[in-house]
Design brief:
Length: about 220
């Protein structure tokens, strides 16, 4: 091999080497790029699943609290109805006491009706009506207090007095459950209102939860 041919051979060998190195570097670059892209996609998917599970767990937790709340309110309404029936059988009441007992009975019936609507459709109007009925029953209960404690006609009616004690305990538990429900609803609503959770909520049609409010717009039971 003469000097000229040797130089040509070296140039060709160098070109092949440069080409091979270039292909190798490009291959490594694409491999790294696609690896990073794949990891990013997997990470984004995992993050999306994590966000979705967090939103859904909040929703289910709030739904369960709602079911428990409706159950406790139904028990509360049943107790109020039993008290109203018992009061109706007591004789010797004054006109004011008669009016107080009648108002309490009507409030209990109003609560039962509102509960039926709210349990079937958790919307703002039904929740407003339910909260209003609870306020109405609480007001009727307060108006009945004087009669229950001071009326001579009530003396000896231990069954009614026990029912009233149970009613007071249920009323206290009910207020705590409403507060819990409202706090959970607020937490869920905040979760689906912030980016990027809002995109997931919109994609899966996850709507906001309605807190239980009264007619004045203030949180009830807080």
């Amino acid at each position: 091999m003469d000097h000229i041919q040797e130089r040509k051979f070296l140039k060709i060998a160098a070109a092949v080497l440069v080409l091979a190195v270039s292909v190798l570097l490009i291959s490594i670059s694409f491999t790294v790029f696609f690896s990073v892209l794949l990891l990013a996609a997997v990470g984004a998917a995992a993050w999306g699943v994590f966000l979705y599970n967090g939103i859904v767990s909040r929703k289910h937790y709030n739904d369960e609290t709602f079911r428990e709340l409706i159950g406790e309110l139904r028990t509360h309404a049943d107790t109020a109805s039993k008290i109203a029936e018992s009061l109706g059988s007591i004789r010797g009441r004054t006109l004011e006491e008669e009016h107080a007992a009648e108002s309490f009975g009507k409030a209990a019936m109003f609560l039962s009706s509102a509960l039926h609507e709210a349990a079937n459709d958790q919307c703002k109007n039904n929740f407003t009506e339910l909260a209003s009925s609870l306020d109405r029953l609480a007001a009727a209960s307060a108006g009945l207090t004087l009669y229950l404690t001071d009326s001579p006609a009530m003396r000896g009616h231990i069954t009614v007095l026990n029912q009233i004690d149970r009613f007071r305990a249920e009323e206290s538990a009910e207020k705590k459950k409403i507060t819990t429900f409202n706090l959970q609803a607020a937490d869920y609503n905040a979760a689906i209102s912030t980016f990027p959770s809002s995109l997931i909520a919109k994609h899966f049609n996850l709507s906001v939860k309605i807190p239980m409010i009264d007619c004045s717009g203030e949180v009830h039971g807080g």
